[in-house]
Write a structure and sequence with these properties.
The chain has 130 residues and is of the alpha/beta class. It has a domain of 70 residues: Nucleotidyltransferase, domain 5, CATH 3.30.420.270. It has three helices and five strands. Strands 3-2-1-4-5 form a five-stranded mixed beta sheet, with helices on one face.
Length: 130
């Protein structure tokens, strides 16, 4: 019995690699255009002076006209907000908490959040206005 061991040549087609790279590039560019920040539609109160802060290092608490709380764009309750503020303070004490409320929101709803932050002794808080 005579067995021949020959070398098999493998061929990888490279003709379509440029098409794959181009589609991958388009996909990455499309994903980079998506805005991951969720915002709640509110009417901002107006202020005379303003100070800009870094968006990446903020924890945003939104309060809509009906008094519903949103934490970074997702519906939450006051206990969830409190727990998240404690977590953020433990991880990064300099993180700024932005309280963003509709100008027609009852002050009791805003005050409830401010009192929670006061009890937690969180000192880096901003009220966001236009």
């Amino acid at each position: 019995m005579n067995l021949k061991r020959g070398r098999r040549r493998f061929f990888i087609p490279l003709d379509s690699m440029s098409d794959v790279a181009f589609i991958l590039l388009i996909f990455i560019m499309f994903l980079s255009l998506i805005n991951y920040r969720q915002e709640i539609k509110i009417e901002y109160p107006e202020a005379e002076t303003a100070k800009k802060t870094e968006v990446e290092k903020n924890l945003e608490i939104w309060i809509d006209r009906g008094g519903e709380l949103y934490l970074n764009g997702s519906l939450s309750d006051i206990k969830t907000v409190e727990n998240r503020v404690v977590e953020v303070y433990q991880d990064e004490p300099g993180t700024r908490v932005h309280v963003i409320a509709d100008k027609n929101t009852q002050f009791e709803k805003v005050n409830r959040v401010l009192q929670t932050l006061q009890i937690l002794q969180y000192r880096v808080v901003s009220l966001v206005v236009r």
